[in-house]
What does this fold into?
Amino acid sequence: MENVKILEVINLKKYFPLKSASFRPFAQRQYLQALDGISFAMYKNEILGIAGESGCGKTTTGNILAGLYEKTSGQVIYKGKDISNLKGKELKQWKKDVQMIFQDPFNSLNPRFTVFRNVVEPLRIYGLNKNVNEIEVVSNALEAVELRPAKMFLYRFPHQLSGGQRQRVSLARCLVINPKFIIADEPVSMLDVSIRSAFLELLKNLQQEEELNVFYISHNLSEIRYISQRMVILYLGKIAEIGSTDQVIDNPKHPYTQKLISAVPIIDPNRKRERISIEGEIPDLVNLPPGCRFQSRCSYAEKKCFAIDPELIQIEDGHSVACHLYSRS
Amino acid sequence: MLLEIENLKTSYRTKEGVVRAVDGVSLKLAKGKNLGLIGESGCGKTTIVKSLLRILEKNGQIIEGKIKFENEDLVKMDEKHFNNILWDKIALIPQSSMNSLNPVYKISSQIFEAIKLHRKDAKKRKGAYLSKMIEYFILMGLDPKRINQYPHQFSGGMTQRAAIAMAMILNPALIIADEPTTALDVITQDQILKNLLELREKFNSSILLVTHDISLVSETCDHVAVMYAGKLVEYGNVKEIFNEPLHPYTMGLLNAFPDIQTSDKLLVSIPGIPPNLISPLSGCRFANRCPFRVELCMEEPRFIRKSFKDEHYVSCHRVDEAENLRTLAKDPKIWKTLKS
It folds into this structure.
């Protein structure tokens, strides 16, 4: 892997103000800390997996990168520039470069548009070369996602397609304007197991052929293991662990990662899984206690963990963890 | 046998025609054992559950077949008798407990409601039942102080725990769990399953686990039934089916599942989609997606017992070549040669 940083996220925060709080004086307003200072980089031509439980901020991160949410603070740096300072042409280029695949293939396509119209939409919005033959471009995109022959699919409506085919149409819609980034938010979680791997395989191949960068959001660690080269484990809006997929899954360091991995059921009935039990409740994201966010469920928690929030520390090449167990003291 | 389903056929009447959602399925579940029912969406697994519990939609109907529970046929049973059995002997753990609990009643009142219906001494011995409720709450890993709270004060995982406590309160012989942990996070899923299995063990109940997640079945069940397009394609002991599947669909499914432990497993994908269950079908229903189909597959295969050391049934014409097919099925390329 070439180590060229293509995108860098620095100390990204996203606080959602609580509705009930809007009548309070400013200083007393309450916020839900969906993301509280995460930093990571994406290297050229890689699939980065983002894993964590619901509410950990993985979708929020994706939505900020896609420009669907305003961030509260922090920076997202692309080609040396912070994306929130982009204007005019540059902003349009960035928006064109980043495309998203949503979780639900049944709601993310316009049901009244044909496949052709759904896929051609971004092409028209970004006003690419007027002379291109739209049908040809769309057909090529459909063929690229293995909807063959494309002619068969062009004038069908989404309701005539299966879930897997719809998700391919979503992917074709991304590809049609040659993006640099694809943000895939649980793209296969609503598909049947027997066709999931075909979509993963397709995404993997396209990523290599087209030199795409994929930001792959999923709660399913087996899927992330299969598809991504590096991964991030989020816990309640903070990065718990980051590293290559093999490092994180074969040699998890953070107590949370260890528990998460030990909770994944194994398909092979001949292997027994060692369960690491986990106690305690997940704290409320509005009134977070001081110190490490995992303190209430961690069996290694000591005094320090209730006072100081651990920083991400590099423990081996490319593998960092935010836990006091590994701080040099 | 605790539960024996014999040649069950359930259909739905729709505008387009009759959908034969379950088309002649036979299953059995022994007391104290767990059976996993797996298959893709639309294969009929939930319809079986609905037929069993008499909660089919208005357009659904059991055409023929028997559902024998403790040697009584549930299909023919009168309403009153059936209602007595329900909850007392057969309990359901629903997929989304958030929607199955009544939001305006306290959890404790809802559980007590179920007890009142089935135990005559409920009012007299309220104290005893309350302490039983608390015991079940603790067994399910819930804080007993929460027993008088309302469902909205519970998180998703907690309502699921409460729903399980509620289902188990009368020590039913059969627990039907329809995708019980699909909406939950891995860690919560793991804890809840652990609690459920411990509780089951304690009272020697049986679980019918309906799920699309085959790894859950591999870890929790003794037997597994694989469904495809309204038919049972394979049934047998978990170890046998996972180690030596006989039906190409089962082989494909097992090879399609990513494994967290290994990064180099080649995943296969089964191209195509299941057939429309409205149109009259002939032959093996998996034939159009099966890379190993031969001409014979135009005829419907019989559901035959293949292994005698443990009951292992399969419906495939090429079952004698299964060992060879298993090796071939591991290669994703084989599956790709198919054009659907």
About this structure: The interface with chain B takes residues 53-54, 162, 164, 192-201, 219-223, 225-226, 245-246, 249, 259-271, 273, 275, 277-278, 282 of chain A (CB under 8 Å). The mean pLDDT of chain A is 88.
